[in-house]
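quick one before i forget lol
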Amino acid sequence: AVVSTQSAHYGRDSQHVKPCCTEPVEIKQTSFKKVGVLMKDLEKQGIIVIKEQKKGVLNITEVNFAHENFRGVKKLEKEEEDVEEEENIAVVQAFTCNAHVTKLFSLYGHKKGDILTRKTLRDHVVSYIKSNQLADPNDKKLVRLDPLLSTVMKTRDLTAPWNQVVQKVESNCGKCYIVPLPDKFPI
């Protein structure tokens, strides 16, 4: 059975114990009423070992597969094809165009709601600065802020360091994550 007790997941769908290959069982309709009570009972039976990470957050640290309740349960073996194709999945932070930054990124064909990688965002900001000749001629580390950059950065300063310009633009974008899957459209 798959049990989740993370408080961040403890909501509408997570008060379920999900046995393999069957429909979820509503935990509140059992005698346990709460996942934590079920987990403590399983620990008392010697099936699992739990550790309370912080109040209300229980982690299963060990599962006793030698317990009598696991007798007759066959361990699924991975097929050789699955092992060869197994790859690590990376989660990449990305940014969304919101109303605040859309004026800048619309110059590069983006609209509100579009997702930008950090590289794309950085490239567009650098391109905008260079094409509008906003690099300070007296100090190459500074960028002169025109009205559009000042608005996007939410500042009244006349100049800012290059890295601060990019960081401020990033912080004023929406945040999201991209999960690229092999041979599939990223999530």
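fyi The first helix runs from residue 35 to 44.
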